[in-house]
Amino acid sequence: MFNALCQLCTGNKVNRLKDQSRCAVCEQGLSDPVSITCGHRFCRQCITRYWEQPVPSGHYGCPQCRKRFRTRPVLLQPTEPSDEAGGSENSKTIAHSH
């Protein structure tokens, strides 16, 4: 039983790391990766295009967790993949243009 739980735990960790290396918009490997304040990672071009599409509320949202932001979130440069989902503490702010 313990062995099965360890394998499940290890598999979940691998899946989380695999998910962090893929963009939730294009579902491909990250190209010019950025993260937003909720910690999810995207290709810079994908999240920029996603936010350029008008929405009735006028808010910006995370395409992965659906968290809403009143203003456009600052794009963060991920420094390394983290073990935890929402690893924004492993990111640094970078300049971006709209």
Automatic annotation (TrEMBL):
Region (Disordered): 76-98
A Pfam cross-reference name: zf-C3HC4_4
SUPFAM superfamilies: RING/U-box
PROSITE patterns the record matches: ZF_RING_1, ZF_RING_2
Polar residues bias (residue ranges): 88-98
One of the record's GO molecular function terms: zinc ion binding
Domain named RING-type: residues: 23-66
Keyword flag Zinc: yes
Keyword presence, GTP-binding: no
Record keywords, A-Z: Metal-binding, Zinc, Zinc-finger
Domain of life according to the entry: Eukaryota
Protein name, per record: RING-type domain-containing protein
